[in-house]
Structures are given as structure tokens and as C-alpha cells.
């Protein structure tokens, strides 16, 4: 399968009226009785698009060129969930949000995964928060988990088998995205190529990402304060969400709101590196 060619084909089809007008939907297993059924949650109307993502252009292109299995990792507020929404909107795919803690067994997990149709994204967010599978092999080796206590739960091997089974039969119409705040906590078997083909770090806000946010929220593409902000961003560790919060705060308060927002952001950045 040539993923790049397939993606370009999907994008071309996405311009058709039928695709563009289709209402995307969000499903989850968290509300089902035993976690083994997908329940419709709501229409998926997230506005995120790749054009408006606060991210360097090169990284956007890297993601678009090879969409199939991704691990998005980075601190909270760096845009992992927004990236998933942008992918869904780009491809016009429904989103299946898998809550591992609600799944009672490997058999139920397999049943869930097999029910996911084509033209869908399987999402497992905050995989590092799942005590069921995070570094499970290491804990087993140390004797910290007894085998009899994991007979009725999702195991690491169960999750790996589901991933392998889903994509061995994949016709190109399903994607998988994991997210984590702590990539170092995830078992290496889950991270290897063939399961998670690309590891995308969602970084703190850089200058290129800031310019996207300034255009999105303030309609500003150039400003005399940009140079000062660029220098401060190189020294600070703020997320795109932090920056957006300061740009939104006074938006719409008159002609000088852009200047005021940028000055306020400079104050916040200066405090963050003190």
C-alpha cells in the first residue's frame, strides 16, 4: 500500500459534494454496559483544520503525507486532541474513542475493534494513564502483578494482537491514533514500527505556531512586537493553549485589542522564564 498516494486520493474525493456534506460522528465505548459496544455520543463538529493548526508547516506536511498509525506525544495543551480533530475533518472520517479502562477483557476489546468500519479513526487517548498495559511487561518481570489477577482485563498482548489484526486486514480506510503525555512510560512493544509507524512530538509553542495563532485569533500576520515574542518563545516553555488563551482574552475589544493582546502575551512569556 502506498499511503501517500492513497491519502491524496482520499483528499480528492473529499472535495466531492457527498463527502464534504457528510456529518461526522463521535462514538465511544465508555457508556456501554461492559465497555464492549460502541455508543453514538454526538455529531462531531470540531472546527479544527490543518490550515489553522498551531504547528510548523513542515510537521503538518509530514503528518499529512503518511497517515495510518500515529503516536502523538507531548505535554498537556500542545494540541494532541485538536490534531485528531483536524485529521478527522481532513479525511471526513468518524471518530471512535476507545476507553480502555471500560473494557473488561481481551475478548471484548477484540470485539470492539472488529466493529470499527472503514472511513474511521480509532483513538486511544492518554495511553500512559492505563495501568492495565503501561510497561506491563516490566511489572510482570518484577513480580508486581499476579497472573491470576489479569485474567479478566485487557493485557498488553491483547492490545497488541488487536492492533496487528486490525491493520493486517486494513484496506486503507482506517487510521489509529494514540496520545500520551509521557511516552517513556509506554511499553516498547507498543511503540515499535508496524504498530505505531510515526511518533509525532507535539512541542511547546514555537514562533511559527504562534504566527498561526495570531492570524487565527487576531487576524494579524505581521507586527512590530513579533520579533520580541519570537525571542521569548525560544526561552520559554508555554503551550499553544497557553498562548491562545492570552490572544483570546481581549479579542474584540476595539482596534487596539491586537496590540494589547500581544503586549499581555509578552508579559506572560517574560514571567515564565524568570
UniProtKB/TrEMBL annotation:
GO molecular function: ATP binding; ATP hydrolysis activity
UniProt KW ATP-binding keyword: yes
Record key words, sorted: ATP-binding, Nucleotide-binding
Signal peptide: none
Residue intervals of the AAA+ ATPase domain: 66-206
InterPro entries: AAA+_ATPase (IPR003593), At3g28540-like_C (IPR058017), ATPase_AAA_core (IPR003959), ATPase_AAA_CS (IPR003960), Mitochondrial_chaperone_BCS1 (IPR050747), P-loop_NTPase (IPR027417)
Stored Pfam families: AAA, AAA_lid_At3g28540
Presence of keyword Cell membrane: no
Similarity field: Belongs to the AAA ATPase family. BCS1 subfamily.
Name of the featured protein: AAA+ ATPase domain-containing protein
Source organism (scientific name): Rhododendron williamsianum
Amino acid at each position: 500500500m502506498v499511503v501517500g498516494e492513497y491519502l491524496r486520493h482520499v483528499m480528492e474525493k473529499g472535495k466531492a459534494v457527498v463527502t464534504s456534506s457528510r456529518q461526522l460522528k463521535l462514538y465511544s465505548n465508555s457508556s456501554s454496559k461492559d465497555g464492549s459496544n460502541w455508543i453514538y455520543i454526538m455529531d462531531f463538529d470540531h472546527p479544527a483544520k490543518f490550515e489553522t493548526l498551531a504547528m510548523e508547516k513542515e510537521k503538518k506536511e509530514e503528518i499529512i503525507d503518511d497517515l495510518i498509525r500515529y503516536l502523538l506525544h507531548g505535554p498537556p495543551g500542545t494540541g494532541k486532541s485538536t490534531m485528531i480533530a483536524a485529521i478527522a475533518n481532513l479525511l471526513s472520517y468518524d471518530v471512535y474513542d476507545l476507553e480502555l479502562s471500560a473494557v473488561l477483557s481481551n475478548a471484548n476489546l477484540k470485539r470492539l475493534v472488529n466493529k470499527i468500519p472503514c472511513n474511521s479513526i480509532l483513538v486511544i487517548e492518554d495511553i500512559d494513564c492505563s495501568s492495565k498495559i503501561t510497561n506491563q511487561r516490566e511489572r510482570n518481570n518484577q513480580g508486581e502483578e499476579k497472573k491470576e489477577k489479569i485474567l479478566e482485563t485487557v493485557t498488553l498482548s491483547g492490545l497488541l494482537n488487536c492492533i496487528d489484526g486490525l491493520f493486517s486486514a486494513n484496506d486503507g480506510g482506517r487510521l489509529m491514533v494514540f496520545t500520551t503525555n509521557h511516552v517513556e512510560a509506554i511499553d516498547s512493544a507498543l511503540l515499535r514500527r508496524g504498530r505505531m509507524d510515526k511518533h509525532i512530538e507535539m512541542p511547546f509553542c514555537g514562533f511559527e505556531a504562534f504566527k498561526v495563532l495570531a492570524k487565527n485569533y487576531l487576524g494579524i500576520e505581521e507586527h512590530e512586537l513579533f520579533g520580541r515574542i519570537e525571542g521569548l518563545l525560544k526561552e520559554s516553555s508555554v503551550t499553544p493553549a497557553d498562548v491562545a488563551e492570552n490572544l483570546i482574552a481581549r479579542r474584540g475589544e476595539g482596534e487596539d485589542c491586537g496590540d494589547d493582546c500581544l503586549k499581555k502575551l509578552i508579559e506572560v512569556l517574560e514571567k515564565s522564564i524568570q
